[in-house]
Amino acid sequence: MGTSVQVTPLSGVYNENPLSYLVSIDGFNLLIDCGWNDHFDPSLLQPLSKVASKIDAVLISYGDMLHLGALPFAMKQFGLNAPVFSTEPVYRLGLLTMYDQSFSRKAVSEFDLFSLDDIDSAFQNFTRLTYSQNHHLSGKGEGIVIAPHVAGHLLGGTVWKITKDGEDVVYAVDFNHRKERHLNGTVLESFYRPAVLITDAYNALNSQPSRQQRDKQFLETILKTLEGGGNVLLPVDSAGRVLELLLILEHFWGQRFLNYPIFFLSYVSSSTIDYIKSFLEWMSDSIAKSFETSRDNAFLMKHVTLLIGKEELDNASTGPKVVLASVASLEAGFSHDIFAEWAADVKNLVLFTERGQFGTLARMLQADPPPKAVKMTMSRRVPLVGDELIAYEEEQKRLKREEELKASLIKEEELKVSHGPEKQFE
């Protein structure tokens, strides 16, 4: 008998929703990717909720929201309780991405879809693999071998090869053929006629300029704005494509001896760069070779200042500056607040380096022609004072009394049960 493979798309097919696939191999259920978007809409996860408790293992291909953003919520709410496999960078940078999202939301709202504890709990289930490492599953998955391979696009990004009885299933989405400053291109072309290939065509109709042409246009646009007295805002992800942008800017600033300040602003910027410095073996051949020969670490940046709070930026230089700020969608985070402050000044520039998520402010601004005006909701958490504080404290006291009364009644019932039924005496 041959190997039975069933592929069920849960999300991300025929639209731009985050990716999630159920792949069943002889009854062993693999969830490949568990993405969410910056709207955090639980209805997108309804198909996942129906199968989460039946998942035997999870494979994660990239450490960003669109590939692992729903993992903490699914484990907390849907009963997803399976081992998770990824590369080391996907694990580390994915964890920081989820932290940044949580901090960004909780800074302006009572965000309760998942907590930092939920994130930590979800990431405790990870097993980290190296590229081309064959990992043999056990138990119900006996005979199945999984292996991550280079995908490009993001650090640690993975093309998954899943093998059983000589038949290969290859999962390759969002890969990049091109070699970049910090990443090699994908090795997808090295696979020979897999039995099943799961891929996407998200950028199939986009004409891509050469890297040299793209970088030249990017840098000239930034420099023109700075020389005109304006600021440049680059809305970026927490720990993904931002790495390539940092290297491009760092190299150009060094070449041109520029003095305009560059800031990387996110709640996890320092932690991100600290981890990145130790991941050189996961990067391009040129970066690894440079470190081997001269001990030159590409991410020991001289021209980029790392910030973890908006007040640090407010206290910095008042002149023209470049700020790379999360979140890329402009739906929340420092980028959202900076955009609101800078948008009214025609000298300033908001520069997008990738297509925004569908339905987000970033995507709206990327329309051709762009909108003349956009509506924004500005939120922030402030300490309660006066009557509001008194009302809140009274409500907390009431809730506490209710909890104490409920606990007391439960205790009485337990005592009655432990003593047995009362006997009647005449």
UniProtKB/TrEMBL annotation:
Biological process (GO), any one: mRNA 3'-end processing by stem-loop binding and cleavage
Molecular function GO terms recorded: RNA binding
Pfam family for this entry, one: Lactamase_B_6
Gene Ontology cellular component terms for the protein in this record: mRNA cleavage and polyadenylation specificity factor complex
InterPro entries linked to this entry: Beta_Casp, CPSF2, CPSF2_MBL, Metallo-B-lactamas, RibonucZ/Hydroxyglut_hydro
UniProt key word Nucleus: yes
Subcellular locations according to the entry: Nucleus
Family: Belongs to the metallo-beta-lactamase superfamily. RNA-metabolizing metallo-beta-lactamase-like family. CPSF2/YSH1 subfamily.
Protein name, UniProt field: Cleavage and polyadenylation specificity factor subunit 2
Organism: Salix udensis
